[in-house]
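Consider the following assembly input.
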Amino acid sequence: MTKPLTILDIARLAGVGKSTVSRVLNNDARVKDSTRAKVQAVIDQHDFLPSKSARAMRAQRSGVVGVIVAKLSSNSENTALTGLLNTLYARGYDAAIMETQFSQQKAQAHLDVLKRRNVDGIIFFGFSGCDLSALAPFAPHCVVLAIDSNDYASVSYDNQGAVTQVMAHFYAQGLRYIHFLGIDEHDETTGRARAHAYHSFCDRHQLPARLHRCEMSLHAAYKATDSLIDSQTQAVVCASDTLALGVAKRLQTLGREDIAIGGIGNHDMLRFMFPRAVSVELGYHQAGQHAAELLLKQLDETPTEITHWTQPCHLVVP
Amino acid sequence: MTKPLTILDIARLAGVGKSTVSRVLNNDARVKDSTRAKVQAVIDQHDFLPSKSARAMRAQRSGVVGVIVAKLSSNSENTALTGLLNTLYARGYDAAIMETQFSQQKAQAHLDVLKRRNVDGIIFFGFSGCDLSALAPFAPHCVVLAIDSNDYASVSYDNQGAVTQVMAHFYAQGLRYIHFLGIDEHDETTGRARAHAYHSFCDRHQLPARLHRCEMSLHAAYKATDSLIDSQTQAVVCASDTLALGVAKRLQTLGREDIAIGGIGNHDMLRFMFPRAVSVELGYHQAGQHAAELLLKQLDETPTEITHWTQPCHLVVP
DNA sequence: CTGTTAGCGCGTTCAC
DNA sequence: GTGAACGCGCTAACAG
């Protein structure tokens, strides 16, 4: 493990000054072609790589964006993350990814670390009960994903549209007894917004509304099914595909496969296990990309206004 | 957005020298308590955070470890990642996570970036067909996960033991016609090692071996089931829980629920959808932790020998 | 115990 | 076109 070369070593080897090497590295036009070639040759020969630490210190920008997610095992989050990373890589940025496990305390700790790292920006995956005010020191170089915010740029999912599309689908099929399984109101998006869209649809179309809530887990949905359905039930719409999987399993066990199932998230597993179920593609991947693009744009040109983007969704039928 | 304070600002504000502030920051004992308190007060008051870029440059170590994974959406990988991250955070390291999507080319590009970032070490999640030689510049500050290597420290899963445990379980139940669904031999671990363990068990116990291979996907497993089983089949062991889910679904459709199912990976979904299936917990989370610990140990004390660790596994029955 | 000094590797003025 | 000199924020070595 030999000590890595510095820009000065290259300069000496090429018989030029430090700054000339620096210019070559940064594609500065003011270098004679022959000199450039000579320097480049030395660089290639030793495959010299300029230190980003030094560059970061000098330029006051690290080329790193901090990404704070709640849970890497979440399908929505890791899908968005993949889209986001590709966009960042393409622009020469790296990501410092940190996981909060839904703990506001960990989020705060991570933000502190990211501040010391001089990250150029932050992408924050919102979760139920998170405290966005901790992002203040980073504004306007941050984007929040999956929740709305008045204070920061945001990319959110179309919770309202997703539920409405599933409901409209069943409604168009002539179904009228459509029940809904959601999660705690405390959750702004998956909990409150989606339940609200359900009620709203029922009102508009004069449908009998019947809604239950449970924990966001397969088992909870499974158990909640019995108290949600009755002999009239024609369809169950769920606030997420995880819930839909739980409900579908229970309905299968009960032999109630006459009941239609709708979910949100377009999870592979739901389509595979219960092909008859419908789901809504929320566009996690694209939302991730969009969040990254938004952040990068903010880094380039200090923004005039706070931007909000709602990711379009679309129904996926068998 | 006011310009962040530097250690010099703090020194002036506290009426001391730069290095005294530095000593306070690094818990150097040689500071009078009263002075320390005075400096700390100023630090707290302005919630000053020392720049890691500068520190990295000075210390020639960035406090960052590069983590290269194949696919964030993989259950095994993101589970291991979570374990790994917690361990790194606890020791004050951050992770630069990069995704290869199984592309060796991307892996190489990521490694180049990580080298310029002066990362202190690398944790590389092995995938089928990956070229470990690209890690050479980082040795001995790297650990590979999920595959074996003679050249680098590694943490691998007990592929042999996992298959053997499932087989032994079925064998103990008196089952003798146990078939196996695997993936391409080209994959060293999930493909070759697990198939080999199957054959080996059959030989030892004089069981008729019947093995098929398919792509690693729910649908492929679903379709492969028909040609794998026959009227005698008593159990199907799968090289992964994904395959097991595909097979189980097909068997359910066929009404062949007399056939026992065994998988590897202890995936939540398998246990929920098919509670009668058995699976093996490979210890992804712990393997991730262990990989991080191994790397950190190597960073502390330059290692004498290349360490290899096989993560113990255990059967999970209903 | 504490202040002063000298770099770490690089980019960016300035002169030449 | 090119090189020398300076400074980014911090830590280590040396004085006091």
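The CA atoms of residues 142 and 278 of chain A lie 35 Å apart. Ask yourself how this observation constrains the way the partners meet.
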